[in-house]
Write a structure and sequence with these properties.
The protein is of the alpha/beta class. The chain has 12 helices and 15 strands. Strands 3, 4, 5, 6, 7, 14 and 15 form a 7-stranded mixed β-sheet that branches. Helix 4 crosses helix 11 and helix 7 runs parallel beside helix 8 (215-223).
C-alpha cells in the first residue's frame, strides 16, 4: 500500500515521503481498516517536526484521525495507532475506541468531527462551563479548531466573537455565525481587547477559547470578564505565553488547560458520551465540519505544510480514493 512516512524530522514538504510499504498488521485488541478520509490536524505538523508531546519512533506515518471502513463493513471514526498514522491507504486502531461515523456526514466531514470537536466540547462545556447568554471569544475562528468552537458556542446559546487573520477568513467567520468578527491584522492586542469591551458594553468575554497563544493570549487577558475563563488549547502561533498570575488574581479570572487526549485514557466513557452529543448536534444541523479542501493522498505533504504555515481555513482532508484535488 501507499503511505507517507517521516524518516527524519523537519518541515512537512521535505520530511514526508510517499512510499510503498506493507499493510499494517493489527496488534492485540486492534482492527485494520481502509482509510476513507484522514483529517489534517496541527499536531500532525508538530509530529513531523518532532515538536509534539508524543514522539513515535522513526520512520512513522502521521495522521491522527480518520474515517475508515472496517473489514466487516462498518464506517467508523478512529485515531490510528502510531507509528501507522492515517495518511495511508490502510491503518490499525484500538477496537474499543472506534466510534460510529454519523450518517448525516460524508467521509471527509466525519473524519473532521472527532479531535477538533471533542476538544471544543470538552473545552467549552467540561472546562469552562459555558452557559447560554454568555459571550465567547474564539481565536483563529476560521480555522479547523476555531470553526468547531464557534459552531459549538452558537449551539450552546452563546454570543460569539471571532478573531481571524485577514479579510478572507473574516468572511468565513461571518458565515459561521460569529456575532462580531475582529481582523487581527488591523488590530494589536490592545485594539482587539478594546473591540471586545466595546461590543460587550465593558463586560468583556466570559469564556475565551485560545488555540493560538502569544499575542492572542495577551489580548484575552486584557478583555476577559469578571469570573471569566480562558481555555488554553494550543500554541499554533508558535509562542507559549507566560501568564501573569497576579493579573488573574486581581481580575478574578481562571486560566484552564485542556489536553483532550487525557480524557481518552482517564475517562473514555466521557469521550463516548461527547461523541453521542456531537452526533446529535450534527443530525440537527447545529454543527457541520467546515471542509475547505479535499486532497488526494499524493498531495498530503503539501496540505500539511500549508496548515503548518497558517494559510488555510477550515479543514483540509486527505481522501485516498481521489486522484485530483477538489473543493
Amino acid at each position: 500500500m501507499q503511505a507517507w512516512r517521516v524518516h527524519t524530522h523537519g518541515e512537512p514538504r521535505e520530511a514526508m515521503r510517499l512510499e510503498e510499504v506493507p499493510e499494517p498488521v493489527p496488534g492485540e485488541g486492534e482492527v485494520r481498516m481502509k482509510v476513507l478520509a484522514a483529517n489534517i490536524n496541527f499536531p500532525d505538523a508538530l509530529l513531523v517536526r518532532g515538536q509534539y508531546q508524543i514522539r513515535p519512533p522513526l520512520p512513522f506515518t502521521p495522521g491522527v484521525e480518520i474515517c475508515g471502513e472496517t473489514e466487516d463493513g462498518r464506517r467508523v471514526i478512529a485515531n490510528p495507532s502510531l507509528p501507522h498514522g492515517g495518511f495511508a491507504e490502510y491503518v490499525t486502531a484500538p477496537a474499543r475506541a472506534l466510534l460510529p461515523a454519523p450518517d448525516t456526514l460524508d467521509d471527509a466531514e466525519a473524519a473532521a468531527l472527532h479531535v477538533g470537536y471533542q476538544t471544543g466540547w470538552f473545552g467549552l462545556h467540561r472546562r469552562a462551563r459555558l452557559r447560554g447568554g454568555e459571550t465567547l471569544l474564539v481565536h483563529a475562528a476560521a480555522g479547523g479548531v476555531g470553526s468547531a468552537a464557534v459552531q459549538l458556542g452558537k449551539a450552546a446559546g452563546a454570543t460569539v466573537i471571532g478573531v481571524v487573520g485577514g479579510k478572507a477568513k473574516a468572511l468565513i467567520a461571518e458565515e459561521l455565525g460569529c456575532d462580531l468578527v475582529i481582523d487581527r491584522t488591523d488590530e494589536d492586542a490592545a485594539g482587539i481587547a478594546a473591540r471586545v469591551k466595546e461590543f460587550t458594553g465593558g463586560h468583556g468575554a466570559d469564556v475565551v477559547y485560545d488555540p493560538v497563544g502569544g499575542d492572542a493570549y495577551t489580548a484575552s487577558a486584557k478583555c476577559v470578564a469578571f469570573e471569566g475563563r480562558i481555555v488554553i488549547v494550543g500554541f499554533a502561533g508558535g509562542t507559549v505565553p507566560t501568564p501573569a498570575l497576579n493579573h488573574a488574581l486581581v481580575k478574578n479570572y481562571a486560566v484552564l488547560g485542556l489536553h483532550w487526549g487525557l480524557y481518552a485514557t482517564k475517562d473514555p466513557a466521557a469521550v463516548l458520551a461527547c461523541h453521542g452529543e456531537l452526533t446529535r448536534l450534527a443530525a440537527e444541523g447545529a454543527i457541520k465540519p467546515l471542509i475547505s479542501e479535499r486532497v488526494p493522498l499524493a498531495a498530503a505533504a503539501d496540505a500539511v505544510q500549508r496548515l503548518a504555515d497558517g494559510t488555510t481555513t477550515g479543514r483540509l482532508v486527505v481522501v485516498p480514493a481521489l486522484h485530483g484535488g477538489t473543493r
